[in-house]
Amino acid sequence: MNNVKGIAASAGIAIARAFIVEHPDFAVIRKQVDDVEAEINKLNAALAQSRSELEDIKARTHEELGEKKAEIFESHLLILGDPELIDPVKARITSESVNAEFALNETATQFIEMFENMKSAYLQERAADMRDVTKRILKFLLGLDYVSPSEINEEVIVVAEDLTPSDTAQLNRNYVKGFTTNIGGRTSHSAIMARSLEIPAVVGTRNVLGAVQNGDLMIVDGIDGEVIINPSDEIVATYRNKQQVYAKQVEEWSRLRLEPTMTRDGVHVELAANIGTPNDVTGVLENGGEAVGLYRTEFLYMGRDKLPSEEVQYVSYKSVLEKMEGKPVVVRTLDIGGDKELPYLDLPKEMNPFLGYRAIRLCLDRQDIFRTQLRALLRASVHGNLRIMFPMIATLTEFREAKSILEEEKAGLLAAGTAVSEHIQLGIMVEIPSTAVMADQFAKEVDFFSIGTNDLIQYTMAADRMNEQVSYLYQPYNPAILKLIHMVISAAHREGRWVGMCGEMAGDQTAIPILLGLGLDEFSMSATSILPARSQISKLSRSDMQALAEKALNLATAEEVVALVQSIGTDSV
Fold first, then answer.
1. 199, 328: one domain
2. Whether the Cβ atoms of residue 427 and residue 492 lie closer than 8 Å to each other
3. Residue 477 CA, distance from chain mean position
């Protein structure tokens, strides 16, 4: 047995076999071949191997999860045998004397681009299926020993050096019971996605990858931040019991699903959820979310070979708005940069990417990208209660320029006869200290603020939140952070604006009493944090918490703030 300590990133207990994720290189180069017939035989062999693998996966999925879940693999088998795809590949090999993998990649890319630009959501989904099938065939053509996270078809715990946001988005929670990584923190994107998927996760272990082998029995304790490798039967039994205790607690919270979020003294606050894809809306509604406080649109741009078209984006935004049935949806415009890269944009390498060419800075420079997204959002606005939010705003000039571009695109759509909602609120992320300091001026021009504490903390404390060497400076309870939050809320309320928070601090049980006292209007968090937060808030009095917050603002250290919150009783933390 081997115990590894890490950071509890997503609550729950997972017990399953280890599945180690590695990232192969699917890069394809053009090669001239002398023996065309041999190249076609190589393609036929790869097709046969792919078919055999898919049929096995389909059979297991049908047996374990039922016919509906197995349907996706049936559609993959149809693509695999479709002469509309395979015949042009063979023709290209023959006419151009090129290698099979190049001919396949070029032909499939043409189909993927065609599907992505279709107006039908069903046909757009076929693009993703085509991409998956192509990678499967390429795996055999290139001789890669690889199983994609999306192809996992048995209960496992995923183990990796790190998981990219696109990796995490592919995880099927029917099979992936939990994951653990060497690097990362509670606010890393893989951790945030784990909470969205409602699977236990422990990150930042430093050495779990070296301590485990494929197939090892593992326990991931996302409550206490522990990973146990090859536990004894007695340890497994202990954790099975811990699973049941946690499940009972979740069941108690679930009774609050349809209740409004009210304090003990009758004050309502809004509990919203952060999402990354339209599929996440199910979790929002199942957990009693009153709104989507942050839709991270960058996931639409990841895991593909080029920018998503306006139509692709429109379908996604429309889907989220319709599923929320009139409840507010705050959509953040593209926030790429820092730890979120798009290889196909070929952005410049920077010494300090978190402080560099990212988010609104990139969008104002690359207006072709920005305007496409804004048009898609504006077109989708008639299908629900849309609120648009610009990230990484540092100056009023940036906000005004972004708003001007939005107004231009709106005018263009209306002139062309396209309907656009007249009730779109426009806000900004407050994640840069300069914006918090100037909140009184911003509040005169924006409809709302959403405080992004993940970045606000790292910029205020000058401490990279991904750097474990300075992780002690990631202090959400530091009075400096609390004073900035207080400054923003006070300035907004003076102008009749509302303030939300979409950083991880919003769902933090130690922070909630203080934020309630500071007057925060909307708390947006991972969907799984909503019901615990609702339970906690129902036991608190806003007036009592105002007195608590006033005391916290006058303390000197984060440790003193934590001690103050703990002093008010166990019901609050």
1. no
2. no
3. 24
The Cα 208–Cα 297 span in angstroms is 31
The residues carrying an active-site annotation are 189, 502
- Identity at 340, one-letter amino acid code: K
The three state secondary structure string of 211-240 is HCCCCCEEEEECCCCEEEECCCHHHHHHHH
- For the record, the structure tokens of 17 come out as 């076999």
Q: Rounded mean pLDDT of 220-232?
A: 94
Higher pLDDT, 452 or 118: 452
At 374, give phi and psi (nearest 5°): -65, -40
Residue 34: which of 88, 92, 96, 90 has the closest Cα? 96
457: nearest Cα among 484, 476, 472, 438 = 476
Q: 68-89: buried (b, 16+ CB within 10 Å) or exposed (e) per residue?
A: eebebbeebbebbeeeebbebb
Hey, CA dihedral for 284, 290, 292, 293, is it positive or negative? Answer: negative
Beta-sheet strands, E only, within 6-138: 7-10, 13-20
**pLDDT for the residue 433:** 97
Task: Please tell me the distance from the alpha carbon of residue 171 to that of residue 195, in angstroms, as a whole number.
Answer: 12
Looking at the DSSP bridge assignments, the partners of residue 267 are: none
Beta pairing class for 425-430 and 448-451:
parallel
Q: How many domains does the chain have?
A: 3
| Single residue among 201, 225, 252 that ends a domain in this structure | 252
125 and 53 belong to one structural domain: yes
DSSP state of 299: G
Picking from 390, 339, 383, the residue whose alpha carbon sits closest to that of residue 364 is 390
Instruction: Provide the whole-model pTM.
Output: 0.70
Tell me the pLDDT tens digit for each residue of 489-519. 999 999 999 999 998 899 999 999 999 999 9
* Phi, psi of 462, rounded to the nearest 5 degrees: 55, 45
Quote the Cα angle for 157-159-160, to 5°.
155
Token representation of residue 475: 């202090």
Domain match, 493 and 370 both = yes
* Contact of 196 with 275, CB cutoff 8 Å: yes
